Amino acid sequence: MPFSDVLRDPRHRPLLVCAAAAALVRGAASWQAFTASPLVHRPQLDALFYASWALDIAGGDVLGRGGAVGGQPLFLNPLYAYVLAPFALAAGKGLIPWVLGFQALLGGATTALAADTARRLFGTAAAWTAGVAVALSTALVHLDTHLSVSGLAAFLAAGAVWCAALPARDCDRLGGAHGPLAAGLWLGLGALARPITPLVLPFHAWLLARRASPGRRRAIALAVVVTFGLTALPSLLRNGLVSGEWAVYTRASGANVYLGNSEAARRHRTMSSGGRFRFNPFQMHEDVRQHLAPRLGPDATWGEISDTLQRDAVAEMLRAPAAATAFLVHKARWFATPREVPSSANLAVDREFAPLLRLGCVPSWLIVAVGGLGLLLHVRRSDVLLGVGAPALAHVAVLTLVFPLSHYRSPALPAAAVLAGGAVAWALGAWAARRRWRK
After folding, report:
1. Pick from 136, 143, 132: which is nearest to 30 by CA?
2. What is the pLDDT at residue 46?
3. Is the CB of residue 185 less than 8 Å from the CB of residue 231?
4. Which pTM was predicted?
5. Which mean pLDDT values do the consecutive 10-residue runs of the chain (439 residues) have?
6. Please, are residues 254 and 309 in contact by the beta-carbon 8 Å criterion?
7. Nearest in space to 372 (alpha carbons), one of 338, 418, 334, 326
């Protein structure tokens, strides 16, 4: 089909219009933030770590034997650093504006994926709803103006939803854009950016297997799982061969659970260690090691440290089960909070430097709330429940255990926006049916 025909086809308008709006809004806000905000052109915390890591990769330290990673097991998810590495190779320390431009385009692609998924599942009105929600998402627009893995994670989560929620014409084939190999690849790459998608794996494998003929179901499910596993293999081999610790992704899980559930976290109602170690990827390694040295010795492995922190968090929760349970309930509720809970990027501060960030005017709580309604309305549809609902609910489950910071929950927004489109489509259908009945 010629591109001019694509533009005239009303089915494609929400995809193209919303994707273009997403890229333009992110590009304009990123340009203003980069030129005005020292927090953007002088990155801190995770952004600085990723930039340093990308420069190390561009300089030839592909496996992280030195530099920022220092031969340790991975502490942050690796995919973003390797995505940044070509920009670091081309522009050196001037990579930031190039990365921000790339993230603006990636935001457009994420919007198109969400809108297309909603269109095929629920119709054109749902496509416009999902497209506008992702294009103008407060959290996604904001985080795309920083060096942040959130935009990449949101793109891969949207791709997984697009792949699994739309049935292939030949459901017994291994290949194809919506086949099991593609599904495993989307999920596997997503886990390298934000390791929540392993929880989604069984649901998407089950969904694709259900569509196949009875004799092919086991092979289809196995193809999803094997492809997913192959994407994790480089990370596993890197950790084992370089650091001596065979971690699949990172050794940060224990620290995250501890920071999100300790007594200090409950007291301050945010991720906290009570001042025992700094919330910074450069200093956290050393602070945690010193904190646990009297118990584990100075040569404890990161696996031992992570496991100890996780046990400490569980022990603290068992000492105060009522308070710990109430805190978990609050965190589940905070997943839909009207406030964008800041971490390394604070929306209120950044808006002072970049007023164009206000173009991101669709708050996360609205997307999550309407998306939750959409899931309830369409819960009997397996393509909705397993294909779209599973990624959204996986984020709720993991972030209830850890903490729903803005950059943690934002990758769930494309799936939630698709579900919100389903709610709007249902409401419009019910209204139209009522008008026909009255006539």
Report:
1. 143
2. 80
3. yes
4. 0.91
5. 51 84 94 86 80 90 85 86 92 89 96 95 94 95 91 95 81 82 94 89 93 88 94 91 84 79 81 66 71 78 82 87 88 81 74 89 93 94 92 90 83 95 91 71
6. yes
7. 418
Ramachandran bin of 275, using left for φ above 0, alpha for ψ from -120 to 50, beta for the remaining angles? left
CA 30/CA 41 separation, integer angstroms: 10
pLDDT, tens digit, 9 for 90 and up, residues 185-204: 999 999 999 888 889 999 99
